[in-house]
Design brief:
This protein folds into 2 domains: 99 residues, no CATH class; 98 residues, no CATH class. It is of the alpha+beta class and 211 residues long. The protein is elongated, with a radius of gyration of 20 Å. Strand 5 and strand 6 form a beta hairpin.
Amino acid sequence: MASKSRHSFMDRMMQEKEKSKFARGCTNLPSYVAKALSKETIKLLSTNGHGLSFPDKGYLQVRLVREGVRYGTHFNYAKHGGIQATVDHAIQYYKQLLAKLPTTPTKGKGKNNLRFCSKVNSRNGIVEYYHVVTYIDPVSGKRATRSFYHGTNPPSAGQWLHGQHTALYFQIEQQRIADQFGTKINHRKFDNWKTVRLYWEGAPALDYDSI
C-alpha cells in the first residue's frame, strides 16, 4: 500500500513538473494586443502565458514543446472575433491540448518520431495542421514520413486525439512489419483515417467532424 502511495505521489509530482515547463508568464505583450485585452486577461497571461506568442498583427500562435516534441497552431484574429475573443479561444485550446498530451512524448525506435505540426503554406499563406510520423524505410534504409492531414482549421481536442492515436498506430504497425517481415507498411490502409478508428478492435466507423 505504501509503495502504491509513493508511486501516486511521484506521478503527481512529475505531472506538476511537466506543467510548470509551460506556465511561463507573458509579460511583454505588443501594445496593440495589450490595448485590446481586459485587465483580467493581462493578469492571467502575466502569471501563465498559456503558450501564446504574438508574431503578427493578424494572428497569434500557440506553442507547446514537450521533451523536444513540438506542438502548436495559429489563430486568426478576424476569423475568431477579434484579439480578446481569439486569446480566450487560444487559452482554452492550450488547456485542452495540455490535458490530452501524455506526460512524456511518444517516440519510436531509432529515428522514429511522432509530432503534431502547423505550418503556413508558402503558396497561399494558409496555415495547415497535421500529425506526422518520421521513420526509417526498411527497404531503402532512408528516412521517410507519413502525414495525417487535419486541414486548414485547427483540430478540436477530439480530432487532435484521433490523429495522435492514428499516427501512433501507424508507427507501431510500421515498426512491427519492418521487424517481422522487413517490408513496407501498406499505406492505403490509412488513406481514409478520418472515417475509421484503426486503432480500435474492429476498426469502427468515425464521424471526424463531430468529435
